[in-house]
């Protein structure tokens, strides 16, 4: 799933090289922490969080295929 | 701009090469070269100028969409295939999905396919905003969900709890009790022999406890209560009536006072408050 998040986001940001995603696995949830260049944060989040919310939904749908774990995506 | 790269070199060619080294060109991408400064040969190394170029990346959006979908498909474990149709007037890239893998693709995505559509649009337009292209998915499953979503939902919401309620509290007669009430109430309403509106007086809410319309209901409540009371006398088993408001319950209580061996009491709270007719020896 990290790859999926990374792939989608790298096509949205100006500096894909500064993009990093950390996966933290918990018992019931998996948290993905996104760190990116400051100038890219707006591009990742989008107007009213439109983009990040879309990413969340798509990743959630993709992840639910394999496991029942909850997915949480956070931009730091 | 993120899609512009600069390079300098002895010749334009060398400068371009340098500029292109900064990017990993993908197969859907092409580039435009803009020469900012021609190379000049100076005299003995003096006054010479390097060539400067700006390389602008351009993405073939149709090919790019293919690449993006296939990559995303890889993460989902499917390889959806689709035909592309570009609508010039709407700037819309219609992606007509077909095949088994596409079915799976949309099955996995479910309702989030709309979100992916949006993401794809943003991805496609990241590099050049001048030629804005809107991605649009086309798949049989989408057409169905769009058309049927609203009516189905509203029907489900209203119907199911209602049906469940009657099933749970059903002792066989509740439904038969409900049906005649409707029958008695409705015919006069649609009846053409009915006196014209002016003669009937002001219209009143049908739940309101007085007036002509509700008096039909009152009569019905009384007669129905008596009918049910007779049944209880026969079977000697308690029977619950449908929930009613306090006035209507009072009607039942008073109407059934004339019966011997019948006791009435109200049970339940608020909207569920209803009368139970019991046999008392």
Overview of the structural elements:
The complex is a heterodimer of chains A (76) and B (281). Chain A has 76 residues and is of the alpha+beta class. Chain A has one domain (2-75): K homology (KH) domain (GMP Synthetase, Chain A, domain 3). Helix content of chain A is 41%, strand content 25%. Chain A has helices at 2-10, 38-45, 50-63; strands at residues 20-25, 29-35, 70-75. Chain A has a 3-stranded mixed beta sheet, covered by helices on one side. The mean pLDDT of chain A is 84. Chain B contains 8 helices and 9 strands. The radius of gyration of chain B is 39 Å and the shape is rod-shaped. With 281 residues, chain B is α+β, with helices and mostly antiparallel strands. In chain B, the strands form 3 sheets. In chain B, strands 1-3-2 form a 3-stranded antiparallel beta sheet. A 3-stranded mixed beta sheet of chain B has the order 4-5-6. Chain B has a 3-stranded antiparallel beta sheet with strand order 7-9-8. The chains are: A alpha+beta (76), B alpha+beta (281).
